[in-house]
Amino acid sequence: MPPIALIMIIFHEAETIRQYLQQQRKKGSRLGFVPTMGALHEGHLALLQNAIDAGDFSVASIFVNPTQFNDPSDYQKYPITIEEDIRLLESRGCAMLFLPSASEIYPNGTEMSHPYDLGALEQRWEGRYRPGHFQGVCQVMDRLLGLVQPDHLYMGLKDYQQCQVVQRLLALTGRDRETLFIPCPTLREADGLAMSSRNRRLPASDREKAPLLYQTLQSIRASLQPGEVEKQLIPHRQHLIGRGFRPDYLALADARTLEEIHQWDGRQEAMVLVAAYLGEVRLIDNVEVLSYKF
Ligand code: AMP
Questions:
Q1: Ligand 1, residues 37, 41, 47: which to mutate, most atoms within 8 A of Cβ?
Q2: Residue 41: which residues within 8 A CB-CB, separation 6 or more?
């Protein structure tokens, strides 16, 4: 078992953490980074556990990044539970927490001089329904990666498209030479609902309905046949709508490019992706479709 840090160091200033981690690297530590927006749950903590299990010097960050929110009310209502987050991280053996203010992340303001070239990835799914979201994600990740310069970057497959975007960012910036991207499986509540900070905002009646999202994905995965996709998805979409969900999308996409699949040959590696509102809260989830048994 790798040693567990007993005391977690907290840094607020960008320059201080950059210098400290440089020293840490010189001493031979391998850095494992877990960027978050806080309101931590077991899904976040599983990323941290992966870093600890790998023997990394674990660095978590909590920063609710304003530039990735296309909806101002989503930003204003984003849950903040800093004291509890600190307690959780420390109790789970996190070595260091970076807790910056916006001016530490964006000392020159949030204006971007040029957009990141994310290609078609940016137009699809989350990119389409949340314009500017992935540019904001890249902006904050570029800054955080520049400061932390991790050997390992741990991110959750719950945000599948974000994983693709950040991998592209690593390639675009050449940071893929120093940082290995490690995608981690989605942690779920006992009833199947993907853990998410936003789940805290669900009123009890919606929380009861919410597992239907994952049940729908599982049922599509189990029943999908080669051939036309849309007609197979319609009843599932209708069922969600009938139970009070307002889907932005429920679709099959190529697992690598995320291009929509209209005709599935039964072999193409694919994901079922969903985003839907339940009341005011927008939930996303996905499952991998295994190849069809011919
Ligand atoms: P967030 O705080 O929502 O920005 O998430 C921070 C990191 O935790 C991202 O890499 C997410 O993909 C990951 N994450 C969020 N929810 C889960 C989950 N249920 N299981 C695994 N990873 C998650």
A1: 47
A2: 187, 195, 196, 197, 199
